């Protein structure tokens, strides 16, 4: 792969990360996301993104280019364990303008569930884990089914409730519904109620939970003695804007590393019963209350004399909230695959920058600039050069 052609966007990505980190402002009253004392909590993110281009007239047939991407993540945290469910499904359909251009459909998807069980509750130390994964893709002989166990160290904490608490206090202070600054302990009390939104929804129902949820948040604020009496209509409406109507991307903090063994019961090529060695690591850090940096890496190697195939993946992202309704998302994904059976090496790099405008907290309009490069040591197969694209589409937030 011609890495020189990929260096400029990667360098720009790195410089942006450093500059945003170096200029991170001090948050309100010296309270930061790192001051969050995590209770038992859960969060859920689910998105459906798509773009469609249709052309007709002055050509043999109507042509189209459709791309869909669905992502799902749910994490439940308790003092002694973290449970994580992931899902990703990508699909496309394309047809050219010529009569003999057939429709080409493609899809690939993965789903996984895993649990980290900590040896010491409320710690960020040693844990053992178990996980399972199922993958499907068009043209495969079988789905990919894999399960494994191992050990690790470290912990990733969801600090989104503290980010919401900081934003809520700023909004109520601006509306003069708060007369004094909250302490770190008081911020945590507010954040802990915010973190229990799912519990309130389960207890009171989707139609009525918000009034009970916000009433308890108001009680915590009133108990500080720093409210001008009740929040009133102005305060309640502003609180609802922040907690319900505005969209805030997930904030995470911490790191972990793990190693284990797994068994590939079925693989895409129809083979089965392959033992594998797995390694993984994560690092997440909010650079400030508007900016989140994340990096996740993994590697897996088949443990067979007749097959020494291995893969390595790295996904880096930087999300910055320009305003309450505008996010700037940057990502770099690298995937390396060595197939020992065919002696093929394939490296894929993809860099993208997305300007996302939230029409509502559910629907967003995206403008995306992307670069991608596939290196497979095969010439004249249509992927020798860097693919450059600029497109617009919509993203719907399912959860």
Automatic annotation (TrEMBL):
Give the residue ranges for region: Disordered. Answer: 81-106
Q: Is-annotated flag, keyword Nuclease?
A: no
What name does this protein carry? DUF481 domain-containing protein
The scientific name of the source species is Thiothrix fructosivorans
Q: Which InterPro entries match?
A: DUF481
A single Pfam family it belongs to is DUF481
Q: Signal peptide position in this chain?
A: 1-28
Lineage top rank: taxon: Bacteria
Compositional bias (Polar residues): 89-106
* Alphabetical UniProt keywords: Signal
């Amino acid at each position: 792969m011609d890495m020189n052609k990929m260096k400029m966007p990667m360098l720009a990505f790195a410089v942006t990360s450093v500059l945003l980190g170096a200029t991170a402002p001090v948050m309100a009253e010296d309270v930061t996301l790192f001051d969050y004392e995590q209770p038992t909590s859960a969060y859920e993110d689910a998105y459906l993104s798509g773009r469609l281009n249709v052309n007709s007239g002055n050509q043999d047939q109507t042509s189209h280019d459709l791309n869909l991407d669905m992502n799902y993540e749910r994490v439940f945290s308790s003092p002694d364990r973290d449970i994580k469910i992931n899902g990703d499904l990508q699909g496309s359909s394309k047809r050219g303008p010529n009569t003999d251009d057939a429709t080409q459909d493609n899809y690939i998807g993965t789903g996984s569930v895993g649990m980290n069980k900590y040896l010491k509750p409320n710690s960020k130390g040693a844990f053992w884990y178990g996980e399972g994964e199922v993958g499907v893709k068009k043209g495969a002989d079988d789905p990919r089914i894999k399960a494994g166990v191992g050990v690790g160290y470290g912990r990733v904490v969801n600090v989104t409730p503290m980010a919401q608490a900081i934003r809520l206090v700023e909004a109520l202070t601006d509306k003069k519904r708060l007369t004094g600054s909250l302490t770190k302990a008081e911020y945590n009390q507010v954040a802990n109620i915010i973190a229990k939104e799912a519990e309130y929804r389960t207890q009171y129902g989707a139609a009525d939970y918000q009034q009970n949820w916000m009433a308890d948040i108001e009680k915590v604020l009133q108990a500080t003695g720093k409210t001008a009496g009740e929040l009133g209509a102005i305060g309640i409406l502003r609180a609802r804007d922040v907690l319900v109507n505005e969209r805030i991307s997930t904030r995470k903090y911490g790191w972990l590393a793990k190693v284990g063994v797994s068994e590939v019961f079925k693989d895409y090529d129809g083979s089965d019963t392959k033992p594998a060695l797995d390694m993984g690591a994560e690092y997440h850090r909010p650079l400030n209350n508007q900016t989140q940096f994340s990096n996740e890496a993994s590697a897996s190697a088949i443990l067979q004399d007749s097959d020494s195939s291995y893969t390595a993946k790295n996904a880096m992202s930087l999300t910055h909230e320009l305003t309450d309704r505008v996010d700037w998302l940057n990502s770099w994904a690298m995937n390396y695959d060595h197939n020992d059976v065919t002696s093929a090496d394939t490296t894929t790099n993809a860099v993208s920058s997305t300007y996302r405008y939230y029409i509502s907290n559910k629907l967003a309009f995206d403008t995306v600039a992307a670069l991608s490069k596939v290196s497979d040591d095969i010439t004249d197969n249509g992927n020798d050069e860097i693919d450059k694209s600029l497109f617009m589409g919509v993203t719907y937030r399912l959860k």
